[in-house]
Amino acid sequence: MFTELNSILNASPDSFTQGEFILVTDRQSDASFLIHHFLCFYLRARCKVLFLGLVQSLNHYSSVSQRLGVSLAQAKDKGQLIFLEGLKDSLSVLIPQESSKASEAMDFLRDPAAGLRSLYQFVRSRLSGAADGDGGEEWGPPVLLVDDVSVLLSLGVSAGAVLDFSHYCRATVCSRLKGNVVMLTRCDGEEQEDEGDDEGPENLLKGLTHQCSIALHVQGLPTGFCRDIHGQVEVCWRQKQTDGQCTPSKLFQYKVHDKGASFFARGTSSAVL
C-alpha cells in the first residue's frame, strides 16, 4: 500500500470516499502496481472485495500482496476476498473437462456477441449482501476490482458490451451498494483516434473515462527511459465540486520499489526535471 498515493487521493483504510468508480489506464507502461495497491488498500479497509483477475493467476497477486504485507489466502479463507481466476475458468469453458466445472461468469466465451450479462450477474450475486461474512465476520462496503477489462476486447466482446458491463457494475456497486469499483484498461499504441474502429481500445478508454469519478493515467516519461524514475501518473478528478468546477488534474512521477512506490510532484525529483 502506497502512503504517498493515499495522500494524493485523500484516502486511507480508515477513511475513504464511497461510491467511486476509479479508472486505471496505462500507455506504453505498466499500471499493474496500482491494482496491487488498491487490492491491499481495500482489504486493509475490511471491505468485501470481488476481484476479476483476467490476466494473471491468483498466485501472482498473492506473491505481490505478500510483499505489501497482505495475505490473500487469509482474506479468501475469511470470506473477505472472492477471486475469479479468468485464465483458469476460460480454459474450463473452451476445453471442457469432466474433472473441472467452468464458472458461469465466463459463459460469454461461448458466444462473445451475446454480451457480458453472465459476468455482471456473477458480480451482482456475489456482492449483494456483501456485509454478511463467513464465520460471523462483518465487512465494510463492497469493492469490485477488474484487471484488466480491455482483455475482453481480444476475447471477441464488443467495446459497447464492455461499457454496458461497467455501467451496470457502477450502478449496482457504486450507486446501490455504496461501494467502489476499480478497473484497469490498456492502450498499447500511441494516443490517437481509432479511425473507423468503434470497437478499439481507444474508444473503450473514452467511454470508461466518461463514466469514472477518478482516472489515473499511467504512461512512460516523455523524455524516455530513466533508471531512477519509471514513469508518470496523471490523476484526474472528474466529479464537480460544490461550485460546479472540476478539480484540476495533477501530474506525478513515480518509481516502483520491491515493497511499494514513491511519487513525486513533477519537477521535484532530482532524476528528472
UniProtKB/TrEMBL annotation:
InterPro entries: ELP6, P-loop_NTPase. It comes from the Eukaryota. Pathway: tRNA modification; 5-methoxycarbonylmethyl-2-thiouridine-tRNA biosynthesis. Coiled coil: none annotated. Keywords: Cytoplasm, Nucleus, tRNA processing. GO terms for cellular component: cytoplasm; elongator holoenzyme complex; nucleus. One of its GO terms (biological process) is tRNA wobble uridine modification. Gene3D superfamilies: P-loop containing nucleotide triphosphate hydrolases. It is found in: Cytoplasm; Nucleus. Belongs to the ELP6 family. This is Elongator complex protein 6.
